[in-house]
Design goal:
alpha/beta; Udp-n-acetylmuramoylalanyl-d-glutamate--2,6- Diaminopimelate Ligase, Chain: A, domain 1; nine-stranded parallel β-sheet; 4 helices; flat
Length: 339
């Protein structure tokens, strides 16, 4: 279930209504009256949840799911466990996205006072002119909120934090002594689109962002909330200006990332990793603890702990430097011979 501090639950909704809304067909019409309250991924679903299967590589998770219903392609209907109602559709993830929009809604800052009446601010919190603090937000002692910053409903910020000007924070839990510099966006939806019944549609992002103690987020950087799980940044990690952290990323403790780094979805970065400027990391990659990436590296596969890589595609630094030196020698030799 998405965190109720950040998302309203609009259920329950009958499977018959969801079938009509998504264009899916119930394999068993008698299940039309069955109700669900939430969407969920297969591994986290319960009897009142609806999930989806779009790739048979997740068949094992499907066999173990406790979901009450599931969107599947007709050819995969036989894979569902007993008690899980099948909604047949050629676009299971698209149908799931439509169901998520029907069942869950992001809480937004309501019209009214700049600081909501039920927001909890400990002694010593300073909110500059133009700052907005939403309903149910909680902010710890000694934290400062800069002018024009918006703290969304339910957001929790710890003690002695510095939130600079024009920062946007939604769907986030933030520890103590965190610094978020001007223009940063924390908790906005990550990039996700899928084919729906009538073309591309956005996939609702129903997770959170967790920033642990001592984290620094640079100016104009973005940390996207998870698609369903959390995006998490570990203690004392320092992130430069204009860095993009996509949904479901897990960053360890004491990591550093220089400006213009881009981390794609579901990447895991171990403790103490160091990323130079303009590093790009493909999705679902694992960067081992203590690994180092040279500036402008393009990472397309996992990097073992403690190793130093560079280049595009990234490879061990010594290999990359030897290759670069060989190319330089060959180019120089052809220039001398006129070839």
């Amino acid at each position: 279930m998405p965190d109720p501090r950040f998302f309203e639950n609009l259920g329950p909704v009958s499977l018959g209504e969801l079938a009509e809304l998504t264009g899916a067909e119930l394999a068993d019409p008698a299940a039309a009256g069955k109700a669900v309250r939430a969407v969920a991924i297969l591994s986290q679903a319960h009897a009142d949840s609806i999930a989806f299967l779009s790739d048979t590589k997740h068949a094992e998770a499907l066999a173990e799911t406790k979901a009450g219903a599931c969107f599947v392609q007709p050819k995969n209907a036989g894979l569902l466990p007993a008690g899980c109602a099948a909604l047949l559709t050629p676009v299971p993830q698209g149908a799931y996205a439509i169901a998520a929009q029907r069942l869950h809604r992001l809480r937004i800052v309501a019209p009214g006072p700049a600081i909501a009446a039920d927001a909890e601010l400990e002694e010593g919190v300073l909110a500059a002119p133009g700052a907005v603090i939403g309903s149910g937000a909680r902010i710890g002692r000694g934290t400062t909120i800069g002018p024009g910053s918006v703290i969304g409903p339910g957001v929790t910020i710890g003690r002695d934090c510095q939130i600079s000007a024009n920062v946007s924070i939604v769907c986030a839990l933030i520890g103590d002594r965190v610094k978020i510099l001007a223009g940063a966006a924390i908790g906005e939806p990550g990039f996700g689109a899928t084919l729906g019944p009538q073309g591309l549609i956005d996939i609702p992002q129903l997770g959170r962002v967790i920033l642990q103690d001592g984290v620094t987020i640079g100016a104009n950087s973005c940390v996207d909330r998870g698609a369903f799980d959390d995006t998490a940044i570990g203690e004392n990690t320092k992130i430069d200006n204009m860095v993009q952290i996509a949904h479901n990323v897990r960053v360890g403790r004491n990591c550093v990332m220089a400006a213009h780094t881009g981390v794609s979805g579901s990447v895991t970065i171990g403790d103490g990793a160091q990323l130079g400027g303009r590093v790009g990391i493909a999705d679902h990659i694992t960067i081992g603890a203590g690994a180092r990436l040279g500036a402008a590296s393009g990472v397309m596969k996992d990097i073992p702990a403690g190793e130093t890589w560079g280049g595009f595609p990234a490879r061990p630094m010594r290999t990359w430097l030897r290759e670069a030196a060989w190319i330089t020698r060959m180019a120089s030799r052809k220039g001398r011979t006129g070839e």
